Amino acid sequence: MWPKTGRGDVRAPGRRGEDGLVAGGPILRTTASDTFAARAPMDTLLLRHADVSSHLQALFLLEDLRAGFLAKAEGRTGEGRAEALQGAHVSLPGVLPAVPAYTLRVEPATDATEGRPSLLLHAAPTGRLLAIMDAVYLTRLTRAVVGALAADVLARQDASRVALLGAGDGAVAQLKALRLVRSLSHLRIWDTDPFRSAGLAARLYRDMSLPAHGALTVSEAVEDADVVLCVAPFDEPVLTSTLVRPGTHVSVLGPALPGHGPVAGELLRAARFVCDDRRLALEQGAAAGAGVGADVIDAELGDVLAGRAPGRRSEEERTVFGGVGLPFQDLVGAWQLYQAVRSDEDVQRFAFSP
Question: Chain-wide mean pLDDT for the chain?
Answer without folding.
Answer: 86
